[in-house]
Amino acid sequence: MLDAFLLYAPLKGIITLVSVSVAERLRKIFSSEIDREAIDRDQTLSFFDRQGLFRPSTPDRTIFDKASERWKPVHVTFSTTQKCTLRCTYCYAEGGRLDDIDIPRSIAKAAIDLVISNAERLGEDPSINFLGEGEATASWREFRWAIDYFRSECKVRGLSPYVELSTNGVFPASRVEYLSEVCTGITFSLDGLADVHDKYRVLPNGKGSFDKVLRTMKAFDHLGKEYHVRSTVSREALLSLSEFIEFIGRTTKCKNIQLEPIFDVTPVTSIATDIQHPDADDFIGAYRKAKQVAAMYGIEIYYSGADTTTKLAFCGTTSAKNFLVTARGIVTSCNEVLQPTDPRAELFQYGGWNEASQRFDVSSERIDKLGKLNPLEIEKCKGCVAKFNCAGDCYAKTAVANGDPWAPGYTYRCAITRQLLKDNLLLSLLAGEIGQIGTKQWLTC
Q1: Tens digits of per-residue pLDDT, 293-338?
Q2: Which residues have C-beta within 8 Å of that of residue 311, sequence separation ≥ 6?
Q3: What is the pLDDT, as a whole number, of residue 1?
Q4: pLDDT tens digit string along 68-124?
Q5: What is the overall mean pLDDT for the chain?
Q6: pTM summary value
Q7: Cα(74)–Cα(67) distance, rounded to whole angstroms?
């Protein structure tokens, strides 16, 4: 093992390995134990000084001010239905357990018209995404109507339509060809090998869904359609996580798998199941082994909190960039906060459909408050090395754990984020992919 420290300055674009001696001198600078003259006399410190490492660097907070004045969404996420072909035991949306309502076409049409109009005005291409209270394909007529209308309107205006679907994969084989044709991106939920997946992602009759999902994925493989897998990782799944990645590599053409530890949603839903998240250290260890297996099959595995890209927002919740319309016509910034009874609704839900005026009413005050969901405003982020990479992590999950996304307490995901970010930075450093300095050298002097 290298006797070295990882030096990481995300806002400076600096990442390198430094010796113990260099690390100690850097520590003294940042604790004001070394003066200007000492820096000038030290060749290594002078080098870092020229890179701007010792100059203050604070992101511009004003980019989040008055977010409501810039609210012009060109992307809409639909929860077209509360119907679902599964009854997942940990489902934050309580899919299939609610009222089985479908989104009225008038609401879907208005949302599509709005994003297309904004896209034309801004010179961008619009997109629609399906992810919400149930399985979008379970209400096939409404789902297909929204896609067909969106695509036809884009064609008339010379725009390129982007359609993304997150699905449980449990739908008739007759629908595969259409979905392969119209969906730009598809993500399947698969939570591990059959014994694990079938414990959590069950059919209404209580039986497992693994075979059905795998059959659907292979149908897309046959058509040459690329897709991703999103896996919610339970304690049981950790025990065979590497085997699961190997299974995907051997039996499918999937090359991208997102791994997210299960999160307890019982405080904000009516689900009575006991949901226990994995231990952070156990998840980290299993993830590292799985990543090695994935590399052998050319598969990228991904955890949302450890992205090496610097950013000031974890997701589109910040400044209400997410325009998500539920089956009831609620406008929310978070795909996990969908019901009016959710205790987090006052923060994340910022508007709704007005039947009388046939338009969406949104709250400028709530949009502006959502602009404050960024690592510069969140107490727990202030001393964290990952704050400009995870940007405060999932705000909805933090709200469940701490009652408030701005609260100082960490979640167990924070420990996972810091360790996996370090791994990813080291891998990127060794590959020479990022950083202004040190990509091929180790500073030891």
Answers
A1: 999 999 999 999 999 999 999 999 999 999 999 999 999 999 999 9
A2: 388, 389, 391
A3: 55
A4: 999 999 999 999 999 999 999 999 999 999 999 999 999 999 999 999 999 999 999
A5: 93
A6: 0.93
A7: 15
**Distance, CA of 19 to CA of 443 (rounded, Å):** 6
Question: Which residue matches tokens 């006399």?
Answer: 41
Buried b (16+ CB within 10 A) or exposed e, 182-216: ebeebbbbbbbbeebbbbbbbeeeeebbbebbbeb
d(CA 160, CA 164) in angstroms, rounded, equals: 13
Which residues, listed in sequence order, are joined to residue 162 by a DSSP beta bridge? 127
**DSSP state letters, 325-347:** E-TT-EEES-TT--STT-TTHHH
Encoded tokens for 398: 């933090």
Q: Is the pLDDT of residue 17 over 50?
A: yes
Retrieve residue 30's tokens. Answer: 């940042």
152 beta partners: none
Cα 216 from chain centroid?
24
pLDDT, tens digit (0-9, with 9 covering 90-100), for 356-377: 999 999 999 999 999 999 999 9
- Where are the strands (E) in 43-144, listed by range? 75-78, 127-130
SS3 assignment, position 283: helix
Q: Would you state the structure tokens that stand for residue 85, as one six-digit string?
A: 């072909």
Q: What does residue 378 show for φ and ψ, rounded to 5 degrees? A: -100, 120
pLDDT for 169: 98
Provide the token pair at 358.
Answer: 């046939």
Alpha-carbon radius of gyration of the chain: 23
Using alpha carbons, list the distances in angstroms from residue 404 to 203, 297, 323, 346, 401. Answer: 34, 41, 21, 11, 8
Q: How far apart are CA 191 and CA 100, in angstroms?
A: 25
